[in-house]
Amino acid sequence: MTSINKAPFSLAFTAIAVLVGIAPVSLQAQATEVRTLSYAKEYSLRSSVLDEDRTFWVSLPTSYEDPSFGAESYPVIYALDGSSVFFPLAGLVNFMSGWENVNYQIPEAIVIGINTPERLRDLTPNGGDRFFEFLTRELFPLIEAEYRTLPHRVYVGHSLGGLTSTLTLLEQPGVFDGYLAIDPSLWWDSARVVLEAPQNLRAFGTQDVQRYYVSVIDSAAAGPLASHVNAIRQIGAKLGANAPDNLAWKLDVILGTDHSSIPLLSWYNGLLFVFDGYDLRHYGTMENPELIEPHFDSLAVKTGLRMDPPQTIFHILSHYLTTPNRYPDAEKAMYVIDMGLKYHPHSPFLHEKLGAAYELMEDLPRALEAYETSLRLNPGNEELEAKIVDLRR
Predict the structure, then answer these.
(1) Which listed site, 92, 140, 169, 280, has its alpha carbon 20 to 30 Å from 48?
(2) Domain end: 274, 299, 317, which one?
(3) Distance separating alpha carbons of residues 344 and 309, to the nearest angstrom
(4) What is the chain's alpha carbon radius of gyration, rounded to the nearest angstrom?
(5) pLDDT at residue 3, rounded to an integer
């Protein structure tokens, strides 16, 4: 199996650095660079299927390499036209799922942006079969061997990319779990995809839950794109009449957009739809933590996403419930932390919060034991080292 080579002189990637700081504005006012954040890398892969080099981008969730979290697995979002959509989409996914801004609308996810410079070849039925083979035989195995992934994939495409994601749903259902078709070019080849949709839906080749989101610009503003809009509306009619029970779908008319500007709102609305039911309000679960496990059981039924409750939700709840100026409740904190450790026994943060809960209960020997366990799991925690020294006195 091909693997990603991380060696600095043999890996073909471009690291994108975000510089946090302010450029000097005068000789008197000089800023000092604080840190450099590398949050995305571009890789090159030699494809034997396509007989060419293919490039793709990778963005990992903020918790993926955070030493305070234990190892966890994530769904994967594959986006076409990576060179243009990868960065805004990865940023949006991070915003909608990031524990740092206490936002749990969708799960944290690995985002893969696939560069598709030969769009007419790869993103239409003309050459799409070979591109699909490249995905399934080469790219998926590579990503799933290299990164901690859940068996849950989302396919994101705009225009011809939306044609591709729609065609994949209809002709190869089950390879992905969620599909975003953003103002897709369903008019292609005299709307063949639309015309053949009923027979493909009647012969739907999977029992897995499938969720399909398709967006379209307002027909009143379509102008010369009237046939384009009409084809998208027709796919909605075909789905309404023929969709099997395991296919949930949504046709979303997004006003005030055109073909070029529609992706941003479509990504947001579409991700909410394919992960419908994930959104977990932390105040509600802090009031009643017993809701957490049933919530994720129902999520699996509704979306096909089977995952343990993530560390991020236990992170915020245990923080609030053990912090004196928040909502301290030692008994409830112990319930939440015990549940979290059941799923994430090697989470340094949860062991640290276990120590904080014992401190609330004034059980200092157990607090010290929990803190020491956390430090063994994350030896670089200098603040915790100092706390342990104080407790040992």
Answers:
(1) 169
(2) 274
(3) 9
(4) 24
(5) 53
